[in-house]
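As a warm-up, study this chain.
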Amino acid sequence: MIPQDPSRRRSKCNETCRTLLVDDHIVVLQGLRTALEDEPGLTIVGQATSGKEALTRVGDLCPDLVIMDISMGGMNGIETTRRLRECAPDTRIIIFTMHANREYVVDLCKAGISAYVLKESPLSTLLSAVQAVREGGTYFDARAQALLASHLNDLHSARDSGGGVQSLSRREREVFVLLAEGRSVREIGESLHISPKTVETHKYNILEKLNARNVVALTRIAIREGLIEA
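Now compare it with the structure written out below.
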């Protein structure tokens, strides 16, 4: 299940919602500002072109809302979201991106976003997301909802079929064994010729499928299943 914090659902942006725009493309930032600056109840207080700059600007400007892309140089939108949740838990986040990717949607939901909108959507969709978030709710466009539904269906299917190690894909099983052996994410990526981000995604999925809290628990499961020696 994707965790949701009831206190965040109840909180609302101020009557005038102070908004920070974050995207590494200046043209996109200019377009967003033009589209949103006359929207009633919104005040664009600033913009940033990287995750690192966004963290600084949030600290300086204390916005109620951040509208942010995922793909940015240096710190991406996923890591920026995680850090914002730590340093500015009352600031709500709308992801505005070109990426219709299930892993991104799921990871960002878990990180604590309030909305996910694709850039291919009409402007009215983004405005609907802004309105929903201002009222203390959440908003996921049709593609994002379908991706979340697919993720939940896979989790339910794995549990219904008995779950456990048998529910892991071939690649997840490979990552599972290497994690249980104490290998680092970087080492696993190099061994399997995949990126560290992909390893992290597999790790997250494995923890969910096996209902494990951490790598120590994974190691116990691997020993119990006879996949590694104690």
